[in-house]
């Protein structure tokens, strides 16, 4: 994510709400004893956001068949979720905010469900044995809303004059589909979104067949690489959608009809392929099956977000120029943040530090300031009081994460040398492709690549509260 300078957000610490006590299970056909069955945790256990996500299972795929009526503001449809139990489950939760589950089945059998705040609590007809694959089908709907926390900001489903969109970090998906909403549980994703004829619906991945019947059009999308919940998006409205190819893969650019067809936003996004190709020389092969970008002409969105395969940009970035630097930032996330995702939110510098560093690389590539000049400008007058490697919830999107993170990357380059450094920039996303990783994993990778003990280096640059020696 890249935020415009006019947009400031902070996040609030949420209360721990785990649920791991054993409960009486429904009858099970597994060999597990009844006493072993328990409810899945009500959170993924993230130290920053304990209630985000859920425990007890691992999602493999989301398949959404939805219909949105902009005139009524209603979203209805079916989510089919395939998953695997990671414990003997008597019940489990999915994250679902504001919408109502009308009918739930697990493996074709009716299940009971209830809403508990933003949690959908599901009890299957029979307990699910650890290691068992299962399928949940949820018929649900209602009038989706945004998540509006006074310190976290607004994210999730937002209605517009001609449609709606759903984006946001660190959570948004739960406002429009049932989800295990934590980056540690990634899954493939399909969307069939039916909207009134003449209205566009853009999402992640490769576009599929489009059909129109009785005045309604169904747009289909498929992301075959696992994604974190907050990286799923949908944008509905009046858009100029340009479909092409780049490097043999679909390239979809969507610009609102409210903006000029050849204006700054369009000219910036037209460089998507060029920028992605340059970043591939630094980070290795592009990790997804599609390219593109979507612009939102909405003052509520003062940021850009690295939604997988197709970033979404607030038009605020393009009001003064065809800003290609923000495009470089969000495309860098396709490697650092999307393909290789966080294991816990405190490690967000692995996303934002490297994406900011990609801005510096791109500026140098364009003949503007060098990477070292960008570093020197940041290093000269910086507040080092916030640790990059553990910034706290209130500073999750602060300069300590973005700029100090990028300075850490450049300092690492000088410490281990260009050969080891640029090899590491490629080996890291290659070795962790479609997975999750932590700061500790990166430190180990950097030490392996360089053959050096880097404990003191990372302690100073990521966790110290005073200016590191450079």
UniProtKB/TrEMBL annotation:
InterPro entries: Aminopeptidase_N-like_N, Aminopeptidase_N-like_N_sf, Peptidase_M1, Peptidase_M1_aminopeptidases, Peptidase_M1_dom, Peptidase_M4/M1_CTD_sf. CDD domains: M1_APN_like (cd09603). Its cofactor is Zn(2+). Keywords: Aminopeptidase, Hydrolase, Metal-binding, Metalloprotease, Protease, Signal, Zinc. One of its GO terms (molecular function) is metallopeptidase activity. Its EC number is 3.4.11.2. One of its GO terms (biological process) is proteolysis. Residues 321-461 form the Peptidase M1 membrane alanine aminopeptidase domain. It comes from the Bacteria. It holds the Pfam family Peptidase_M1_N. It catalyses: Release of an N-terminal amino acid, Xaa-|-Yaa- from a peptide, amide or arylamide. Xaa is preferably Ala, but may be most amino acids including Pro (slow action). When a terminal hydrophobic residue is followed by a prolyl residue, the two may be released as an intact Xaa-Pro dipeptide. Residues 1-24 form the signal peptide. Residues 62-231 form the Aminopeptidase N-like N-terminal domain. The keyword DNA-binding does not apply. Belongs to the peptidase M1 family. This is Aminopeptidase N. It comes from Actinoplanes digitatis.
